[in-house]
Each structure stands twice: as structure tokens, then as C-alpha cells.
């Protein structure tokens, strides 16, 4: 490795949640590692919040004049990272200090092309995983045991990867609302040959009480439907498989989802 090159770039995306961001940064500082940089990419936050950020221990603070959405914010942040590895973390997550115990396994797997990305947490539990190391497993590209969950192999929850991942599989689709963009990218990854790993134990968690910015993206109020939760999960899975069939990686876009950012 080059003498001045950082081993890890911690990339944190931020929008008007400065106190969550502080918790996120403090958690990183508790990890037993050195030779890293903290890169914060802000997506047009209010001036009062920017002033707070400018007082934080941040190596690189990338600012946007206007809010451009999570995808654009991520893309700018990735370009600004100089580390051999990128650990991505939204500002409403904190990394567990024990993540340092698995990083070398992650790096080895990435270098040996056994995985292209390793996730540190998931909201769902995969029924089928393939053991890679003592602490890391591979999410199968497709498994009938994961039939309702295959789509969820990619998530914008905390993970480690390299810039090469984006050169190979594409950057994030800009000018989209958060949910639309994440879904499009998840379909893109599912249809690719990207290998996604996950830590056997959760090594990241959401900050208690943090309010997701996604709730403000839709002009429609959330409606409550009295439908069995299992039915919703099954219907969503088939909807995503339909998206997978219809997906064109060159045109990029979803057939059954609405991009609220264009409204």
C-alpha cells in the first residue's frame, strides 16, 4: 500500500441529522483501528446544521448547494474516498466496535474475489447462507429457502467494499427518491454476478429515536391496510421478481414503482 494511502474510508451520508451524525462518528472512533479517514457527504442540509458539522472531527466534508437525493450524495462521497476499502454508514447507524474483529476476514475475502461486498447487518434473516469464514457468510444469488428474501441481498445498511465494486456494477441511479433508488440498485445487483457477504453477527444498529428522512419523500400520506402481513410479504416478493424479469441494466428503471423525487 502507498505510504500516504488510507486503509479505510468511512463514508457517511448526511441530511439534517447532525446529532445522529455525531453518534455515528463517535462510534467509529471507538473501533480499534488506525489509518483511516472519515468522509461525510452532506446533501444540502440547513445552514445551522452545516455549522455544527464544521465543528466535528471530519477529515473530508463534501457539501451540496441543494438537496439532490441519496444516490447523488453517495456517488459524490464514493468519489471522494481515498481508502483501499470503503465502509459505508448512513448517519442514523452506529457500528459496533467488534467490527474490528472481522475486518481482516472481510479484506481477505474482497482481495481474493470471494465476495464483492460484506454487509454488517440486515433487517431480515436469510434461511440459507454459505459459510465463508468463521465470521462471514455468502448470501446465495438465488435460493428457494430465501424465496421471499432474495431481493434483500443488497441494502444500503452499513457494509464494506471497494471502489472497484462500483466500476464493475455501476454507481447509484440519481434523481430518484430514496426507496426507488435503493430498490433499483438491489434489483441491479440481484441480476448481476456480484457476490454479497454478510457478517454472522450484527455489527451495526440504528440509532434509537432517529427519524428516517424517507418519510418526507412521498407526497402521499401513508395508509393503513388491514391485510395479513404474510400476504404483503409474499405479494412484495412476486412484485420484485417481476421487476427482475423486466429490468434493463442499460435503461435502468422500475416498472411498478413510483419515483416520488420527480414529482
Question: Would you mind describing this structure in some detail?
Answer:
This protein is of the alpha/beta class and 263 residues long. The protein has a single domain, classed as Spore Coat Polysaccharide Biosynthesis Protein SpsA, Chain A (Alpha-Beta Complex). The protein has helices spanning 18-29, 47-53, 70-80, 103-111, 163-169, 178-191, 229-246, and strands spanning 8-14, 36-42, 60-62, 85-90, 93-95, 117-119, 130-131, 136-138, 159-161, 196-199, 204-206. It has a nine-stranded mixed sheet with strand order 3-2-1-4-9-6-10-8-7, with helices on both faces. It has a two-stranded antiparallel ribbon with strand order 5-11. The model is unreliable at 218-222 (pLDDT under 50).
List strands and helices in order, with pairings.
Layout: E1 8-14, H1 18-29, E2 36-42, H2 47-53, E3 60-62, H3 70-80, E4 85-90, E5 93-95, H4 103-111, E6 117-119, E7 130-131, E8 136-138, E9 159-161, H5 163-169, H6 178-191, E10 196-199, E11 204-206, H7 229-246
Parallel strand pairs: 1-2, 1-4, 2-3, 6-10
Antiparallel strand pairs: 4-9, 5-11, 6-9, 7-8, 8-10
Domain Glycosyltransferase 2-like: 9-127
Organism: Flavobacterium taihuense
Protein name: Glycosyltransferase family 2 protein
Known CATH architecture: Alpha-Beta Complex
CATH topology value: Spore Coat Polysaccharide Biosynthesis Protein SpsA, Chain A
- Regarding CATH, which class? Alpha Beta
Shape: globular
Order of strands across the biggest sheet?
A: 3-2-1-4-9-6-10-8-7
How would you name the oligomeric state of the polypeptide chains in this document?
single chain
Most strands sheet: 9 strands, mixed
Number of domains: 1
Please tell me the overall pLDDT: 92
As residue ranges, the low-confidence spans are 218-222
The string of secondary-structure elements, in order, is: EHEHEHEEHEEEEHHEEH
Terminus-to-terminus distance: 46 Å
Estimate the strand proportion.
15-25%
